Amino acid sequence: MTTLLSLAALLVLVLATAHRQPWRLPLPAGVRMLLVTRSDFLLIGALLGPFFLRVVDTTTIEILRPFSSLALGFIGLHYGLQLDAQRLRKVPPFYKLGPWVQAAGGAVAVGIPAWFFFREVFGTGREPVVAALVLAAAAACSTGIPLEMLAREEKYRASPLLMMLRHLAEMGELLALVIFGLALCYRHENPVIIGWDAFITLQWIGFSLLLGALFGGVLLLLPRVGRSGGRMMVTGIGALLFFTGSASFLLLSPLFVSLIAGIIVANVPSESRHIARFATRAEPSFVLFLLIVAGAVWQLNAGSGFGIWEIVALAFVLMMLRLIGKTAAGWILAKTTHAAREPPRRFGLGLVAQGSISAALALDYLQSGSTPETRVVVTVVLLAVLATELISPWLILHVLERKPRGTSAPKAGPAESSS
Length: 419
Known about the structure:
Elements: H1 2-17, H2 29-36, H3 40-48, H4 58-63, H5 65-80, H6 85-88, H7 93-122, H8 126-140, H9 145-150, H10 160-186, H11 200-225, H12 229-249, H13 254-267, H14 273-297, H15 308-336, H16 356-367, H17 372-400
Helix pairs in contact: 1-14, 2-17, 3-14, 5-12, 5-13, 5-14, 5-16, 7-8, 7-10, 7-15, 8-10, 8-16, 8-17, 10-11, 10-13, 11-12, 11-13, 12-13, 14-16, 15-17, 16-17
């Protein structure tokens, strides 16, 4: 009975707050940007979890595991559905390269030091490499949610710099999802094909791609099941449960598998607009559910072998390295850009907020197997998400209110093609 009440309370909380609109509150822009990031739901999850109010206890968390995989898969699918190659082909060259450079700046700045750290503390092997890659993937992320809120404001609506930042944030998360999917494939020590011990990681990468392709094929067939919205929704969620559950069972990433499916649906001629419409409408509820669960399973230092302040210090160091990496990548882009309006050299500061995909990566990693490295990574990522989203609104405003170096008229904003 307690478990059922906990589940009911969690469902009511998610549904009641999924479509909140804090950008309409009469508050300063920085405060409103902080509210729209949704990171406060990590704290709500931690408060409801087994170490505080115990509304969501360990039994409930275990029961919620399939639904967590569903939410992870839904986020990957929603992101993949936005990657329409025809639209992205129209984007100017700078805006094709820029997101990858920005994402790589954060990934390299965090991933390499993290690998040295994990190798020194936990020894050699696959797991320290995987842990460093997961941290690199999380560091590559930059959420565009605060930027989308500013785009609603008259003061910033026509800003070409804001449009550029939105595009870089949205597209940069693709590299993060790819790195993460490959990291979980590298984690496997046994081959897919029994008796063939060569190229084990490549075997699992191929299997992940195959699983995602099969999922995408099923989604493409949904319109033939019936044009009824309710029937398509039920069948689609059933397919999502099956394929994300299969990925979790095989210790692969539901995020990555669903990303592949979303890309296939977005780029194969079909009536995919129904799927995309449903995905856009339901996305806030799934994200909030995932953030609450991530907060509930979060244990600040349990089982990691580190003290609380050691974990906090590590998170701070890696967060600063990511900040340096993002800023350096922005400086390189600003120095080499051929855009009509050159961005300020420190525009990378506007891409510091990590967002819900970073939290999704942490939860996905934790569900694929719990080790001391896993618990360190999850804690560091969630602390970084909270910290960066506290400071990012003011960094974004700082970047946008600086006088740009260029004076000529900007090109059409590419951000619209990816949002």
